[in-house]
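The records we work with from here on pair a chain with its fold. Here is one such record, which you should read through line by line:
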Amino acid sequence: MSPIQIAGNDSVEQVIQKTNIARAWLDVPAQDLVSVEPQFVLRVSAHIPGSSPAVVDVFEPAFKRLHQMTAGAIQVKAFWGGSLHKEREGIEALKAGITDMCPVYSAWDATMFPAAQALSLPFIFDSAEGATAVSEALYHKHFKKDFESQGVLMGRMVATSEYNLFSREPIRTLADIAGKKIACSNGVESDLFSALGAIPVGCSTPEGKKAYEGNEVFAISISDSAAHTVGLYKHANYRTSANLVRVNLEYGLSPTFYQQLPEDLKIILNQWLRGLAQAGAQLFYGLAGAKACEAFLENGMEFISLTTEEQSIWRNQVAPVKQQLIDQLTAQGYSGDEIVEDILQWAKHYAEFTSDELMQESLDHPFMDLLP
C-alpha cells in the first residue's frame, strides 16, 4: 500500500493531510455563486440517501463548483434516496429523459459491462483515487464501447476503497466463510468469493443491506463509507479486512443533455466531472471511510486483519480468477490480456502520485476523451 495515497487504515487526521486539493476544490464561497436563472438544469439522481457523506460532503459542494465554473449557466437539481427511479433502472431513466446523470454501475451487471470487470481484479491498486485515475485513463480505449452501446455517455468513473467483510460472527480463516452466503457485487467479486468456497449473492447496496439485516446472508462485502451510510455497522459485530477487491461505480450521463450544450459548456462540464470523480474517491471513500471506522469502533465493532499466513491462503485461492476473466473477455472478442496489462501499467504509473497530486492532475490535465 502506498503511504502517499489514502490507505484503508489511515486515521481521519492522516486523510485530511492527504486531501488538501480536493477539499479546497469543494470549498466554494457563497460570494462566488452568481444569482442567475440557469440556461441548463442538470438532474442528478441516485439511490443514496440525502444524508450520506457522498451527498453532503461531495455532491452538494461539487454542484456549487459547477455553478461557479459555468457562471450559473448549468445548475443542478438533485433527487436522492431513489426518489426518481429504482437503483437498477438508471440506464432506462437516462434514455427515457427522467434524469440526466445517475448510477449505471458496472459492478451491478457484468454481462452489460464485461471489460470494466477487470478493474475489480484483486491486489492491483493502492487506493481509490489511484484506481479512479486508471479507470478514467483507460475508459476511451477499453470501456467506452460497452457503456455507449447502452445508449448512455460516461459521467464519472469512481473506484471505491477496498471492500471489507461485515458480519455478526468473526471471520478469521477461509473455513469461516466456506459454504456461507456473502452479499457482494456481481462479476469479479462474485467470482472471487466462489473461488474462496463461499456462496456469492450478487446484489446492489440496498439489496445487500436488506439481505444482511434479514439474516439471508452470513456477511456483506462493502466499503467502510457505504456500510456507515446505510447503517450496516449497527448490525455487524466484526469487520474483516481481506483486502480482496474494490469496484468501479460509474455515473452515466444523458446524451440528450450533453448534446444540447454549447461547446464551451461541454468542455467545462467534462472538466467538472473529472474533478468530481477524483474528489469523490478521496473524500467519500477516503475521508468518510476513515470517519466511518471511528464510528464502528465506538459502536464496539471488532476489527480483524488476516494473518500473513491466512492472507497467502486467500491469495492462492483467488489467483486463477485473473486468467479466468482474461479468457472470458477474449472469448467475447475483447483483448483480455491487453486490458489487464494496461491496467497494471497505469496502476504502477499512478502509484507514484500523492493524493493531492492526483487531484491536481484531474484539474490541470483532465482527460478529454471520456465524452464526445
